[in-house]
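Can't paste images in this forum, so I'm doing it all in text. The chain is below; anyone willing to post the predicted structure tokens underneath?
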Amino acid sequence: AQNNNWVAAPSVRAIHPSPDLFDFSSAVELTNDRLLLINNFINVFGTINSNNITIYHKTGDTWADAAPAVVATITNSDGLDSEGLRSFDQSGPFSGFVPFKANTIQDKLQFFTENRYCVAPVNISATVSDEGTSPVVTINWESLPTSSSWEVEYRIAGSQEPFQVVPALEKTVTIGENLSYGNSYEYRVRSLCANYPNFPVSAPTAPEHFTTPCLPPTNLISSAETYANNSYEVSLTWNQPHENQGYNIVILLGDSVVADLQSSDPAVTLDSDLLFNEEYRFQVRSVCGTSSQPFYSEFSDGTFSINEFIPEELKLYPNPTTGRATMEVPISQIDLSLAYQIVDHLGKTLSTGVITRNNFEIDLTHLAPGIYNLILSKPEENTVLRIVKY
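Text version of the structure:
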């Protein structure tokens, strides 16, 4: 390196206990009217005090390897005070050639003073809480005192939508709007530096992630219907807590899993592979996230059982003296809205009614002698009894 052409690069970090001793992790070389940044030039370091910045060059990798040689001294003059020099320890996104013409050390100092740039925050963290009606996230970070304010950007992870931007005047921000349950979000923070007119905004931090709660289903309801042929249908329903990818339903008998199901809707129907007169447990949880990266809520629990169909007899006792017939109906079937109709041999309906008690009289006095069908109707099946009137 030519001594009068090497100056401190904008990237500076302390590597020595003394606060006034800095390592310049890269250096710049003047080539005619252009400034070339050379990255990772680790053998340049310097000291700073109230009067000047002294740039050194050494050949070894440790402090004791060789006595450093002075490369250049940048003096504090022409209106640049000591605070301006001390704020020289900023980093900058310089690479390649940058137009620059410098005839004096003062010109070089002026260039770097004007081209200091904003440094991104560090130690970013997010804490998620549930306010009962919506999720809330609080994001914290650390930042250099040169930052005057910040911007927090967030969106659903993997989304191509633009980031939503939240301004912050402190090194913390709480977001409670535009967040939904059961999602993973990516977020990042950038610094704003009002005193750096040329580079007033930092690059954003690398994306971090937080996840909002995936809530379990509520109000689980089960119903089971058994039919005369011993087929059955079990209906399981629940309330959807929020928009999600669907549900995972587990059916258990004792501690054994007998079915593990998926449903996109808050309901599922079972009609096979279950036993009568057993108590089953069912567990339902919400599936959140994405199909490639799902995550789950806690399980909600319910129970159901399937009763075996046991036929019950209907009994009909005609009374020729009164012209009526008395029907004995099992009480359980009266609850099924048991309707009846009397039909002649041509299929013509002669009378209708609804059986409302277990001993029910049917009037036959209006019928001429002959053969009739008494049809009893209930959900899913009909029962036909034959009546002969003399």
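Residues 1-105 have pLDDT under 50 and may be disordered. DSSP finds three helices and 31 strands in the chain.
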